Amino acid sequence: KQEVTQIPAALSVPEGENLVLNCSFTDSAIYNLQWFRQDPGKGLTSLLLIQSSQREQTSGRLNASLDKSSGRSTLYIAASQPGDSATYLCAVRFSGGYQKVTFGTGTKLQVIP
Amino acid sequence: NAGVTQTPKFRVLKTGQSMTLLCAQDMNHEYMYWYRQDPGMGLRLIHYSVGEGTTAKGEVPDGYNVSRLKKQNFLLGLESAAPSQTSVYFCASINRGLGYTGELFFGEGSRLTVL
Questions:
Q1: Of B45, B103, B109, which is closest to A49 when you measure between CB atoms?
Q2: Is the dihedral of CA A6, A12, A16, A18 positive or negative?
Q3: B40/A43 Cβ within 8 A
Q4: What is the pLDDT of residues A95-105, one digit of tens each?
């Protein structure tokens, strides 16, 4: 079964710290991987999309990496701010069932001022 | 562009009532999806569609029906609502045309409570 796992489920860090969020997936044959942010009671905002041929993508203070062989992606957040507090979700489109996107259960991040 | 729009945003139903959630996208996307999000369970795929006139079951299709009569619209129906269907429902779409990136776009969600 193709699964996506995000550990830890929750993370609390002091403001200004650099941090890494993890996403693991069980099958290395993927089309792409997408990171989302979700604020409480809100929808999902796309942060970064990495195609299977790419190793990383960057947007501002965010950097996402992809290692298909080990089935891992990381989302690096530099100089964290209280406004970064949210739940971060990883979504993987596996090859073969390319119509479907599988989500992890997310990491809830709290940045403490 | 409005992107992906869901209506209604909030709804309260009584057990046994029926309702339809509407998802509309103005990006000419081929694929559309309905997910439900429950605490501790992440997003689970209910039904999806790969084009006008086609639909398919996802992980948790029981109790729901869908229709894609027009490319831009994807409807999710509950024929006889149950308390277990209390959830937040999200619609999403992906393009498949020229310049296709496979990026998933989401609506803002529809919060449904079944009493």
A1: B103
A2: negative
A3: no
A4: 876 567 899 99
